[in-house]
């Protein structure tokens, strides 16, 4: 995949190396030559000095051949302008803009732009670690609204059905690993000792899961 990254701060730098290590072609744009210099002499991608939303510069950088564009600079405004140009003018198939101000995310999503708010994601992740350490999510989706949990079947759930962990729109067993083999359960699947349960859970429903597993008081079955 041919990826163009605007902004060579810490996020842009790390992203560029992650993509290069996966075998992608990477072009990094930054108006500060010193920022690009931090990539080091061993950087295998292309470095372009200039303003990341200048259309002529983008053309020279090869945006017309790009499969993906990431706007990761320290300016929300610059990121959104560059992302809109990449998506609407140059028709880049995959465009993501980093945002610092999460209040802007909904506005830009209505414009059809995919955004990542590091502020929101970081706050949600810290909240999870502080309040749900007994059920630490192994992965989150969106800005932390949905969590993926993996846990061994508690003793009091052995013999229960997978459907007993399902709450519409809040939690669902999406897979079970049994004796080293994973499968997707149906509502009548019976939970066995040693099963590893993989659940998708709304962050707002974590308290109910804690209660069900005996971490808190009460139960919802």
Description:
The chain has helices spanning 10-21, 33-37, 55-61, 76-89, 105-110, 118-131, 206-212; strands at 2-6, 25-30, 46-49, 68-71, 94-99, 114-117, 139-141, 146-152, 171-178, 181-183, 196-202. It is of the alpha/beta class and 221 residues long. It folds into 2 domains: 2-118, Rossmann fold (3-Layer(aba) Sandwich), CATH 3.40.50; 127-212, Regulator of K+ conductance, C-terminal domain (Alpha-Beta Plaits, 2-Layer Sandwich), CATH 3.30.70.1450. A 6-stranded parallel beta sheet has the order 3-2-1-4-5-6, sandwiched between helices. Strands 7-8-11-9-10 form a 5-stranded antiparallel beta sheet, with no helix packed on it. Helix 5 links the parallel strand 5 and strand 6.
In short:
29% of the residues lie in helices and 26% in strands. By secondary structure, the protein is an alpha/beta fold.
Chain-wise SSE layout:
Elements: E1 2-6, H1 10-21, E2 25-30, H2 33-37, E3 46-49, H3 55-61, E4 68-71, H4 76-89, E5 94-99, H5 105-110, E6 114-117, H6 118-131, E7 139-141, E8 146-152, E9 171-178, E10 181-183, E11 196-202, H7 206-212
Parallel strand pairs: 1-2, 1-4, 2-3, 4-5, 5-6
Antiparallel strand pairs: 7-8, 8-11, 9-10, 9-11
Strand content: 25-35%
From the helix content, strand content and strand pairing, which structural class follows? alpha/beta
Named CATH topology of the largest domain: Rossmann fold
CATH class type of the largest domain: Alpha Beta
Q: Into how many domains do the coordinates divide?
A: 2
Query: How are the strands of the largest sheet arranged?
Result: 3-2-1-4-5-6
**Gyration radius from CA atoms, angstroms:** 22 Å
Helix content: 25-40%
Count the beta strands: 11
**Cα distance spanning the termini:** 48 Å
* DSSP summary: helix tally: 7
User: Which residues sit in consecutive blocks of at least 5 with pLDDT less than 50?
Assistant: 216-221
